[in-house]
Design goal:
six-stranded antiparallel β-sheet; three-stranded antiparallel β-sheet; Jelly Rolls; single chain; mainly beta
Length: 154
């Protein structure tokens, strides 16, 4: 009988995992919170801002140093043309994030970024972004202090 390679590998990996779990003693070591800090999704501190919600995971964008932030764009909401004072590194975690560039706001030219997409907003690069049909969640990593400047031409 022919078994596709991907299926055979998946089966082998699942069997190896099951064997590992069978020989690993459960609960033998105490949890060391200084070694790893975990925040389950239900404990992430979201703040709703109307068009979006944000959750600061690490640092503070208004202060020197690195920060990590989640932004949840609500369906049908976009920002207007603006730029940031420092580079920002964005990964789309869920949904479709829509992005556009330039000082003229024109949603018809926005490009969709699906889950797993990686986008860089270079410092002073004019852009706008948001969500259309459904919510999307992005992770933003940057360095502060960060300022955001309106750059829309009417």
């Amino acid at each position: 009988m022919f078994i596709p390679t991907a299926l055979r590998r998946a089966f082998q990996l699942s069997m190896a995992f099951a064997a590992f779990m069978a020989i690993t003693p459960a609960g033998t070591a105490e949890w060391d919170p200084s070694a790893i800090r975990i925040t389950p999704p239900e404990n992430i501190p979201w703040k709703d801002n109307g068009a979006s919600a944000t959750a600061l995971l690490q640092g503070d964008p208004s202060k020197p140093g690195m920060y990590i932030e989640l932004t949840k764009w609500h369906a049908g909401h976009n920002s207007r043309p603006h730029f940031h004072s420092t580079d920002r590194y964005i990964t789309v975690l869920s949904g479709t994030w829509w992005v556009g560039t330039g000082k003229k706001y024109d949603p018809s030219v926005m490009k969709p970024m699906g889950p797993g997409s990686y986008v860089v907003h270079p410092a002073k690069g004019v852009h706008w972004d948001g969500a259309r049909e459904g919510d999307c969640v992005i992770e933003i990593v940057g360095t502060g202090p960060l300022t955001t400047v309106n750059a829309e031409e009417k």
